[in-house]
Structure formats: structure tokens, C-alpha cells
């Protein structure tokens, strides 16, 4: 029997997924979950025709040029700003991502993070655990209402729409959104969503949730100038990517009381977090876990595996980015 094609699974994933891949491929996996430097990644990709990767691996033109045998790069994430797709396409390398399977789980989390931020849940929990709770007080951890407020969404893709649905149908929120393209009327209608320009979105939102993919065009889409246009009582939640929000400008805006609070699941330079964000009490910080339910992470891994198997066995990858 001919040798199986060799693939790299760059991070630790479900053993069942490794077993499935091993039926088709000679798999080099990473059970220690070592985070590879670019040089280590290049070294481990030698001789591999496929790569199952996550957002911690960067695939760029230089790496591709050193690995001309590589045919498929399958990301276990919906976002793929870690991959130079144009460079892959130019070299005939298929790129895939994992849309849809994580939409509802990620929208759940975005909504939860926004609520935790507005209602000061983690801040008040820390206070209680520190043994500082000695009385009821009329203004203790008084936050901002979510029900009936204006929910602003920057980036109205599948996840943005999921958050909008939760806000409109579950909490009676007024939904305003800004996106490159407007939703068709039959999608705006049921959630009463209103397309607005970015300035209006910033000015009107009580709770602004950022869900736009990261690219050169969205780098620092929320910076000092944008934060200055927001209400001083507003909250900002980022579940998109670090880099869409200028974290230094956000820390400054929070310090100066230009907005009330922030909920952040993603960071510029993560897993590093800006020290001034870490130091602020009115910021809810989570370690990039918006899609992390057990079922959804398994569905993402399965879909990335489906893509890799199809790409390398003559099938049609279900969610190719550059088919
Ligand atoms: C995604 O899918 O892009 C998430 O950020 C990874 O969890």
C-alpha cells in the first residue's frame, strides 16, 4: 500500500479527531500542546502536504515558499487573519475555516460578556470573595440596564446577527448596526435592526459589541477618536480579534471615564494583556473563549478535519475560503 500523505496537527486537539485523521494520513500531532515559534513550525511542516492549525499558527508567504509541498491549510477557527490567503491562493494552497458551527455559542458568549460588563458581575464577585461585603447599599455595583437599551453591533455577520437576535427578542433591545453591506429587509425586520453609519452607531449605542473580522481595513476600527464619540455611560465588548480595538486607547478612555466599562475576550498581542487594562476594575477580561463550549470546539475540530480530508483526497472541502 502506498504511504499515506503526511500532515501536521499543530496544536493538541480531541484524540478522536486525531484518530480519524490517522485513517487517512500519517499524522504528526502535538500532544504536549507546545506553542511553536515560526522557525519550529516551519521545521515541523517539512514534508507535510496538509496542516491542521489554529489561530496561534501564522502562515505567511515566507513559510509557504519554504514548504512548496504544502497543499492545504485548515484553520480550526472562523477567523483566518493568521493566514495570508492571497499568498496561499497564489501557490495553489487551499485554505479553510470553521464558520457556522460556532455561531450560536459565540453569540451566547458575546451577549453574556456584554451583560457581565454592564451589570458589573465579575467586579462585584471579586469584592465579595475579598471579604469586603459588609452591608447592602443603594448604589452598590449599580450598573447599566441591558433590557430596552440600544445594542450597537459593529460587523453584522452571522455572529453579529445572533447577538442582535438575543438582544431584540430576549431583552427588548433596540438594535443598531454598522456593516459594509446592509442586511436584506427580511433579516432586519424580525429583529427591528437599523443600519446606521459608524458615527451614529458610536453616538447612539448603550452597549457596543464588536464582531467585525480583523484585516488591515479594520485595524483599530475602535481607537481614541471613536471612543471619544461614545456615551460616557456606554459599554464596549470585543469578541472579534485583538487589533480591531486599540487597547492602549481603550485603557486611556476607561481611565478618563470616557466610557463606563469594557468586556474583552480578545487582545492585541494576546496572550499578553495591556497592563492598564489588567489594572482597571471596570473591565471584564476573558482568555479568548467565546467559542469554547465542549460541543462547539468538537464541531470546529471535526469541520477542520473534514476540510483537510476532502482537500487531500480529491473531495470538496465543505468550508474552503479560497475554493
Ligand atoms: C474563531 O473561530 O475565530 C475564534 O476566535 C477561535 O476561537
From TrEMBL:
Name of protein: D-glycerate dehydrogenase
PANTHER family: 2-HYDROXYACID DEHYDROGENASE-RELATED (PTHR10996), GLYOXYLATE_HYDROXYPYRUVATE REDUCTASE B (PTHR10996:SF283)
CDD domains: GDH
GO terms for MF: oxidoreductase activity
Catalytic EC class: oxidoreductase
Matching SUPFAM superfamilies: Formate/glycerate dehydrogenase catalytic domain-like, NAD(P)-binding Rossmann-fold domains
D-isomer specific 2-hydroxyacid dehydrogenase catalytic domain span: 7-322
Limits of the D-isomer specific 2-hydroxyacid dehydrogenase NAD-binding domain: 111-290
Family: Belongs to the D-isomer specific 2-hydroxyacid dehydrogenase family.
Domain of life assignment: Bacteria
Keywords: Oxidoreductase
Lineage of the organism: Bacteria, Pseudomonadati, Pseudomonadota, Betaproteobacteria, Burkholderiales
InterPro entries assigned to the protein according to its UniProt record, in alphabetical order: D-isomer_2-hydroxyacid_DH (IPR050223), D-isomer_2_OHA_DH_cat_dom (IPR006139), D-isomer_DH_NAD-bd (IPR006140), NAD(P)-bd_dom_sf (IPR036291)
EC number(s) from the headed UniProt entry: 1.1.1.-
Amino acid at each position: 500500500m502506498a504511504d499515506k500523505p503526511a500532515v501536521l496537527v499543530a496544536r493538541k486537539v480531541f484524540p478522536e479527531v486525531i484518530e480519524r485523521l490517522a485513517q487517512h494520513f500519517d499524522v504528526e500531532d502535538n500532544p504536549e500542546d507546545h506553542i511553536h515559534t515560526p522557525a519550529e513550525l516551519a521545521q515541523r511542516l517539512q514534508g507535510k502536504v496538509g496542516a491542521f492549525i489554529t489561530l496561534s499558527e501564522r502562515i505567511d508567504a515566507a513559510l509557504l515558499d519554504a514548504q512548496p509541498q504544502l497543499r492545504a491549510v485548515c484553520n480550526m477557527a472562523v477567523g483566518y487573519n493568521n493566514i495570508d490567503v492571497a499568498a496561499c491562493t497564489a501557490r495553489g494552497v487551499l485554505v479553510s475555516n470553521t464558520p457556522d458551527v460556532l455561531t450560536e455559542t459565540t453569540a451566547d458568549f458575546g451577549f453574556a460578556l456584554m451583560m457581565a460588563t454592564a451589570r458589573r458581575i465579575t467586579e462585584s464577585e471579586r469584592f465579595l470573595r475579598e471579604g469586603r461585603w459588609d452591608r447592602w447599599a443603594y448604589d452598590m455595583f449599580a450598573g447599566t440596564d441591558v433590557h430596552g437599551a440600544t445594542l450597537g453591533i459593529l460587523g453584522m455577520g452571522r455572529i453579529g446577527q445572533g447577538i442582535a437576535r438575543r438582544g431584540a427578542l430576549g431583552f427588548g433591545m433596540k438594535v443598531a448596526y454598522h456593516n459594509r453591506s446592509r442586511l436584506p429587509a427580511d433579516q432586519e425586520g424580525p429583529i427591528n435592526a437599523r443600519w446606521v453609519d459608524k458615527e451614529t452607531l458610536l453616538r447612539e449605542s448603550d452597549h457596543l459589541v464588536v464582531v467585525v473580522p480583523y484585516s488591515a481595513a479594520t485595524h483599530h476600527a475602535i481607537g481614541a477618536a471613536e471612543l471619544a464619540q461614545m456615551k460616557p455611560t456606554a459599554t464596549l465588548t470585543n469578541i472579534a480579534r485583538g487589533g480591531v480595538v486599540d487597547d492602549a486607547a481603550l485603557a486611556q478612555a476607561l481611565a478618563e471615564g470616557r466610557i463606563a466599562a469594557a468586556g474583552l475576550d480578545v487582545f492585541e498581542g494576546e496572550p499578553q494583556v495591556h497592563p492598564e487594562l489588567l489594572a482597571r476594575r471596570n473591565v471584564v477580561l476573558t482568555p479568548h473563549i467565546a467559542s469554547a463550549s465542549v460541543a462547539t470546539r468538537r464541531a470546529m475540530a471535526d469541520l477542520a478535519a473534514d476540510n483537510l480530508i476532502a482537500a487531500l483526497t480529491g473531495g470538496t472541502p465543505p468550508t474552503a475560503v479560497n475554493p
